[in-house]
């Protein structure tokens, strides 16, 4: 008999792009299924039919992928895809120079899967890293989590958020809304007038 893997392409609940629902709805349902399966990889040689279907479909949702192919969307969501959703800060001034800043940074995972690598999250200020006690590996696909912490900063500090692999090389893991360096600029601490 045939081996059927729950949640896989042999599962009757798995909707492929050419499903009977027709049109773009089936593509969006297909992408939803990819997230539900925590998809990290789709074999280009084995799954050629899916690649061809998605290449010929234009993504029409009103988001950053509007006008791109369904394949482009898929390739950009396999595995994890983190972005900084929003940031709020409260500043407790000690004097004109030194400040305690409370951060609430909301990090989203719009990818299809969690990250399984060990990581470290930092604020970067000038030439120093401020570690943040937060595990991005806990962010499920399609969810947002809040990292809440305090940091001691000085007036004029430019603050960035950086995610790295917890390995010897400390490879940067890019946020989807990052600068070219892979890190996210959060702002600069200005002097209150």
Biggest sheet: strand arrangement: 4-3-6-7
The total of helices stands at 3
Task: Give average pLDDT, whole number.
Answer: 82
Query: What is the global morphology?
Result: elongated
Instruction: Give start-end ranges of low-pLDDT stretches.
Output: 1-25
| Secondary-structure class | alpha+beta
Give a short account of the largest sheet.
Answer: 4 strands, antiparallel
Helix content: 10-25%
Number of strands: 7
Secondary-structure element string: HHHEEEEEEE
Give the N-terminus to C-terminus distance in angstroms: 76 Å
What is the radius of gyration computed over CA atoms, rounded to a whole number of angstroms?
21 Å
State which percent range the strand residues make up: 25-35%
What is the strand and helix layout of this fold?
Layout: H1 23-36, H2 48-55, H3 70-75, E1 82-93, E2 98-109, E3 119-125, E4 128-132, E5 143-154, E6 158-165, E7 184-188
How would you sum up this structure in a few lines?
The protein is an alpha+beta fold and 193 residues long. It has helices at 23-36, 48-55, 70-75; strands at 82-93, 98-109, 119-125, 128-132, 143-154, 158-165, 184-188.
